[in-house]
Amino acid sequence: MIKKLIIINLLVIGMLFTFSKIASAGEYEKAVLGHIVTNSSEIDKQKLLEAEITKIGSKYALEMVSILQQYLPSIIDGAMADLRLKLDEQHKCLLLKDTKIADKQCQ
Question: What letter would DSSP give residue 89?
Fold first, then answer.
């Protein structure tokens, strides 16, 4: 549960950070826009869109890798703690299986 929340938060923060960077047009964006305006009848809009989406996707992927690399130890620690809790619960239920002791989690 905590692992999912951390991952969702990282994705949202990454998306917000990258969307704020996209809003400002740089030299590349100005050049592409100028080319589209001047040659709009000759441009294959499908290919242009695919190229831009690929460029943006790879940029986001690289940023997400660096973010995940930074927070991976915390994510793994949380996953290991959850796994230990589940295994402890299963072990307890196996120990109580043939006894008269009742437990709510082992029913």
Answer: H
d(CA 106, CA 94): 9
Tell me the C-alpha distance between 11 and 22, whole Å.
16
With CA atoms as reference, report the closest residue to 60 among 27, 8, 13.
13
Decide: pTM greater than 0.70. Answer: no
pLDDT digit string, tens, across residues 31-47: 877 777 788 788 787 88
Asked whether the CA dihedral 48, 14, 29, 33 is positive or negative, the reply is positive
* Other Cβ atoms closer than 10 A to 29: 12
Which residues in 1-107 belong to E strands, given as ranges? Answer: none
Cα–Cα distance for residue pair 7/56, rounded to 1 Å? 20
- Nearest CA among 79, 84, 66, 85 for reference residue 3: 79
Residues 6+ apart with CB under 8 A from 63: 14, 17, 18
